[in-house]
Amino acid sequence: MKLASITDQTVVNRKNGSYSSTRIYPVQGTPGSTNPSKPIGDFYAQFSGDLCAYHIPGGSFSMRFTADNTVPVDDGQGGTFLEGTFELTILEGTGIYKPFAGGHNHMVDKLHLLAPGDGSGGADEYCFCFISRP
After folding, report:
1. For residue range 76-98, what is the model confidence (pLDDT) as tens digits?
2. Alpha carbon separation from 15 to 20, 80, 90, 92 (Å, rounded)
3. Structure pTM?
4. Is residue 29 packed enough to be buried (19+ CB in 10 Å), middle (13-18) or exposed (0-12)?
5. Contact 92, 59 (CB under 8 A)
6. Main-chain dihedrals φ then ψ at residue 34, nearest 5 degrees
7. Neighbours of 17 (CB within 10 A)
8. Dihedral, CA atoms, 69, 78, 113, 16, nearest 10 degrees?
């Protein structure tokens, strides 16, 4: 399946070295594979900025974090859970996501920042995004 390129976006430059990435897995209603063990795309986020991008079947879209409603919770193992919600504005979209530009993302998130030195890569995340058009 050919995907619209994330490089078609003008706001997010994922090649500038400021983005980390993780795989996106399907939920009911997302285009592409329905196999929950098979990734359908990628999520790119700036840890020292406020931009992010999604690249999934049908196109890509970029967003800006506008509000952080999370609280840190000790995991009892030297790490921290960051639990709560984030609000994001959709800046632009490509492919089938073009009409979402100017819309909103309400992200429900549980980010586990693992204890330093555990050898796992630093973080594990479980989130759902409720995305709406303008």
Report:
1. 988 899 999 999 999 999 999 99
2. 10, 29, 20, 18
3. 0.80
4. exposed
5. no
6. -100, 0
7. 6
8. 120
